[in-house]
Amino acid sequence: MNDMTPTREQREAALEGMGCRRKRVEDIRFTQGKGNYVDDVKLPGMLHGDFVRSPHAHARVKAIHTEEALKVPGVLAVITAETLKTVNLAWMPTLAGDVQMVLADGKVLFQNQEVAFVVATDRYAADDGVSKVVVEYEPLPVLVDPFKAMDPDAPVLREDLAGKTVGAHGPRKHHNHIFEWSVGDKELTDAAFKKAEVTIKEMISYHRTHPSPLETCQCVCAFDKIKGELTIWGTFQAPHVIRTVVSLIAKIPEQKIHVIAPDIGGGFGNKVGAYPGYICAAVASIVTGKPVKWVEDRIENLTATAFARDYHMTTEIAATKDGKVTGLRVHVLADHGGFDACADPSKWPAGFFNIVTGSYDFPVAHLSVDGVYTNKAPGGVAYRCSFRVTEAAYCIERAMDILAQKLGMDPAELRLKNFVKPEQFPYHSALGWEYDSGDYHTAMRKMMEAVDYAGLRKEQAEKRAAFKRGETREIMGIGVSFFTEIVGAGPSKNCDILGIAMFDSCEIRLHPTGAGIARMGTKSQGQGHETTWAQIIASEIGIPADNIMVEEGNTDTAPYGLGTYGSRSTPVAGAAIAMAARKIKAKAQMIAAYKLEVHEDDLEWDIDGFRVKGLPEKVMSMKDICWAAYNSVPPGMEPGLEAVSYYDPPNMTYPFGAYLCVMDIDVDTGVYKVRRFYALDDCGTRINPMIIEGQIHGGLTEAFAIAMGQEIRYDSEGNVVTGSFMDFFMPTAVETPHWETDFTVTPSPHHPIGAKGVGESPNVGGVPAFSNAVNDAFAFLGATHIQMPHDYWRNWQAAKNLGVVA
Amino acid sequence: MIPGPFDYHRPASVGDAVKLLADLGDEARPLAGGHSLLPMMKLRLATPAHLIDLHGIAGLKGICRDGDRIVIGAMTTQAELLASAEIGERLPILHETALLIADPQVRYRGTLGGNVANGDPGNDMPALMLALDASYRLEGPNGAREVAAREFYQGAYFTALEPGEILTGISIPVPPAGHGYAYEKLKRKVGDYATAAAGVVLTMAGGKVASCVITLTNLHETPLLATDAANAVIGTTLDDAALKAAASAARAIMQPASDARGPAEYRIHVGGIMVMRALQRAASRAS
After folding, report:
1. Structural domain span for residue A754
2. Which residue in B188, B243, B273 has the most chain A C-beta atoms within 10 A of its own C-beta, making it the best mutation to test that interface?
3. Interhelix angle for A276-288 vs A239-250, to 10°?
4. B178-195, pLDDT tens digit by residue?
5. CATH number at residue A512
6. For chain B, which domains are there?
7. Which residues on A lie below 8 Å from B44 (Cβ)?
8. How many CA atoms, within 13 angstroms, populate the side-chain half-sphere of residue B82?
9. pLDDT of A232-270, one tens digit each?
10. What is the pLDDT of residues B31-61, one digit of tens each?
11. How many separate domains does chain A show?
């Protein structure tokens, strides 16, 4: 050895593997404006489509007059439901087992529903055409309030379902009822409530909001009449699923469909499903023989494309006087809008809402969910959360605070008393999940110490006394949230989408010079996969991350995968990467043994290659093995060094975290100030701490927005009143609080690298922390539960209702 | 979000612009910063056949002193107001307010003339013009005339501008040295219109309010001059009772719409609080 020989630490650092704060490789193009998004796709002869949309929330469509629109220079076609019927595409299946109109077929069910699709030579002409289409409507009674959906005299929304007493998820109780889903032991739960010393009951609403990615949904469809092939560039979080769905509904052989998801500007669940725009652009391309682009604008995205939440959760907890929980009973009224277009695994009409027992050891629990139709946009997607997990976390975390208030206990103390204990893992919850690992007490105590929880409570007591003496008009709230997520859908025994098991995949090919490419079934929308996937490979097989290119989003080259949402990429595809890498490593070991003239078992792995046990100088680096794989493999072995893995996870993963928010509220104006926000996350093994922190910052910002004002609100006529960024709260850097992040590490025992998924934790855990802070601020004035969102005027309204402002 | 077809004109003089407006009639709209008009066109709520862009008219820009008045060209941007030391020294309330308008990108393009001429009750500058007793120069086919800001606003988007007239300048009397001022604006986020806002210009003498003007933004279909509210504090030390009387008098003339910023009741309540806070801050700045 000489001075130039790198140390083990230097060799390890050179890989930039797991644990390294590697800078995001994709940012080189994003920060220079060189990303390639769908709207950057410009093809020769490309046409543009745009929608005529309904101004009414519920109306019969009497006639659609297209003559004047067709006279507009540049307008080539106006597609209506009648056109689509000729190719049997007026309706499309949803991921939730319902059907949805592509274009209004006889009636409209929500404001801004798609009524006709105008195709023109440029975007201006298309919009000129839209303004010339005349639609005759006959307004019908509007149903906005989900609590009135199942009234006997409620208007009939879905005439197409007349006489259907059974839906995709069992019996329907009413013409506006979609499904009832229940889990848990009702008898035992009712019994626990009967003998409970203390109970609480509250209707906790999680209002309708929207994922609103910066880039809206869009596509370019190009049908090649000669080859009979359809190529679709689109904003797809799950490109392979789109290919299969298009093949099934358009009857085009799957090998003749090419789906390409280029760079995507945020998804947050909004880009999982299929929308009318995709179908219309594809049909328009087939009809005209030219490429057709469809790009929705912000108002269309907010008002018509896949909302999130809208869960109304009547929640009861039974407990002993000293604060031990003995039962949980939850009924959810779920507002799905005009069609059930939830993007959940097919057998889960309410997603994984049965994680609602949270981090607590409930001996018994029962949950039932009723889904109903209303005259609102369809959706119900997982906005930066695993399916309905955010709703569940909000429900239990609010309810635990309400119980603490009733018992006169500190909310942190109540949680510590009821946490699942470390020795109980793997833990079987009363509602059917097997939590893989956790150490909740350690995380909670670390949080309490970091923020000086006792000191904050003391300060709050002093401020409350000062408020009561009339010395200040400001109240202080401390919001505690301890969440457990369920992510990584999922095991084939639980999860499928339209019959396809929710595995994910990775194909790694190493090149002779010690470099390689990894192709994935996932699709980054900003998560930084190109950076982190290469880090897993670097650590597994000793090739520097910089030498690994990661490619996603092209269904012709990528192995089949179910895509990126629900924090599933690391738990599922991350595992596939490790498994593919290990296959390569096994072959590499055989090659190294052959070249070093020893038995395989005499070799041991050492950072970036193999060495002979007991002879540290006798080594073969992975780089040299790559070369050898292409010229001197052992006799009988195929040349090359590549592997594919399709990973069906044995279980979900269960990340958790302890969050705390300190907020001050001016009761006279309702104006709040987030003074401090601390977020401790445990996502198991941490692949890239910098990217994790970025994910936490982004998710907390969304949680802040949702809890403090972001909503899709309708008036009594079904008009959206928050349909643009003027009124739909999208915080800027000025409004966004400062975030403090922290972590503990409890690896997943069943995941090859122990990682759990983290992208959605901050949205899941953040919302209850903010809402609990507001509720905690008002608690000493007599409030038990104040509904979200907590924007200025509602805070003032709360203060007024409590009699502290005139 | 795609506007309909229109023709674009870029005259080089006010005379040419006025002539174009006269020739093209109702189908023509003058274009200043465009922050109100262009979004309306993209939504096709406004569909002018002709846009007359005023950016080519050099004479419409600039800030100059004219005796005891400051005259500001209509096409002067909010950013140029902020860059002016003269404004900072003589009309500091314009700086305070310009910084509350939207964000830097908007302020680089948005003009004072467009802000005050459009008649949008959500715009911040009209209330200041009422507070400072500014007058507007309007030029049209029949020549030029001066109209007091306090006479200009007649309803939402409805002003004293006659067909064919362009607002070309704003003339503001310089307030006395040592005056106190404040513009209190409650908004939901950067870039938002006021949930409620109040402007105050006052002078103090011997610890008491000697003169006072209070104006209100976005609490009625026009900006409001709250005369009774101002009278309620003149001669007082701005004690608690005087502040409450001012808030109460101001609230009596507010008629905001209920919107996503909150119900009318809330906007009126916080409107009164903005008045009290503006009075206190203005007084603290007076000498």
Report:
1. 393-487+652-801
2. B188
3. 60
4. 999 999 999 999 989 999
5. 3.30.365.10
6. 61-173 (3.30.465.10), 180-285 (3.30.390.50)
7. 127, 131
8. 17
9. 999 999 999 999 999 998 899 999 999 999 999 999 999
10. 999 999 999 999 999 999 999 999 999 999 9
11. 3
